[in-house]
């Protein structure tokens, strides 16, 4: 046996920030932040901030991401919401920000 418990549902205690997914796509396509920003019609600093988790994905940004790199706007908004919700829980659990 491989040591992996079977039958238990996969319930990770983490969530991947949307920026990780965006960065992976950029690497796969050989694009820079500047290239993605140009294709989306937004500032390179905004893309960099999203990738670094410093800026949220808005409806406008989600639409641009869906148009340029794929999936749907709702996918990007759900990913952002899940990430922010998990950060909030972690902050509450650790007492950070008090």
Overview of the structural elements:
- The chain is mostly helical.
- The protein has one domain: 434 Repressor (Amino-terminal Domain) (Orthogonal Bundle), CATH 1.10.260.40.
- 61% of the residues lie in helices and 0% in strands.
- It contains 5 helices and no strands.
- Helix 4 crosses helix 5.
- The longest helix is centred in the last third of the chain and has 22 residues.
- The radius of gyration is 16 Å and the shape is globular.
- The mean pLDDT is 87.
Report a brief summary of the structure.
By secondary structure, this protein is mainly alpha-helical.
Number of helices: 5
Tally the beta strands: 0
CATH top level class name: Mainly Alpha
- Report the structural category: mainly alpha
What best-fitting shape do the alpha-carbon axes yield?
Answer: globular
N- to C-terminal distance: 46 Å
Mean pLDDT: 87
Percent helix among the residues?
A: 55-70%
Strand content: under 5%
**Major sheet description:** none
Poorly predicted tracts of residues = none
How many domains? The number is: 1
Order of helices and strands: HHHHH
Radius of gyration: 16 Å
What is CATH's topology name?
A: 434 Repressor (Amino-terminal Domain)
CATH homologous superfamily descriptor: lambda repressor-like DNA-binding domains
CATH architecture verdict: Orthogonal Bundle
Protein name: DNA-binding protein
InterPro entries: Cro/C1-type_HTH, Lambda_DNA-bd_dom_sf, Toxin_antidote_HigA
Organism: Mizugakiibacter sediminis
Domain HTH cro/C1-type: 22-76
């Amino acid at each position: 046996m491989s040591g992996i418990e079977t039958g238990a549902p996969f319930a990770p205690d983490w969530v991947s920030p949307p920026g990780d997914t965006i960065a992976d796509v950029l690497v796969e396509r050989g694009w820079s932040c500047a290239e993605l920003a140009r294709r989306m019609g937004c500032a390179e600093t905004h893309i960099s901030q999203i990738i670094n988790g410093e800026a949220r994905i808005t409806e406008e940004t989600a639409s641009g991401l869906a148009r340029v790199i794929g999936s749907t706007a709702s996918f990007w908004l759900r990913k952002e919401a899940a990430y922010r919700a998990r950060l909030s829980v972690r902050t509450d659990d650790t007492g950070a920000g008090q």
